[in-house]
Amino acid sequence: ATQGNDTLKGDLMEYHLDSQNGFVTGNVIVNRAGGVMTAARVDLRGGDTYIASGGVFYQSPTESFSAPWLEYTVSTQFVRTQGRTKLVRSDGVIWADQMEGSQRTGNMIARGNVDFQSDLHQVTGSGDRLDYQKSGDNQGTVVLTGNAQLIQRGKNTLTGPKIRMNLDTGLAEAEGRPTLIFTPENRPASTGSPEISK
To answer: Average of pLDDT values for 159-175?
Structure first.
């Protein structure tokens, strides 16, 4: 089935022209201008919302999602997932029990057993919730709350109720009695007495 530039493929399809509701099951492929989604089943609601279930995978030029369940609204470009979700972007990977966000702005919220890893920023983190706010062309800010932990370069660890990290500057700030474990860099041993200038 095609609608504008969108294409829907599957083993079984039912669609009601008056309500624009329907479903596609079996080896479903949704091909849109912004990306491609595969799933076991996709339900259509009012011609504007796709609800995908069963091994959902979405790929676009800027990101990919994998989740058991995903809802996407075309007019608002809003995505919502349920179940263990993996989001991959150019600057890192986020795992959580559910996510929601805007493809238009790039902002997103992850909730439940959140983990993230960014090789670009040499940092890993975890918490109960992660808020990512993009700011124009800048990379934006990550805020971890609830049992928050941030590990930089695999050594320096910052924990606390709330941690905010600026992805552009690499600066991390913590609130509410945080703990910082800092591991100094290894330096070569001195080969002699230092000279003291007078």
So the answer is: 88
Cα dist. 164→57, 107, 148, 153, 161 in Å? 30, 15, 10, 17, 10
State the pLDDT at residue 186.
61
Stated pTM of the model = 0.83
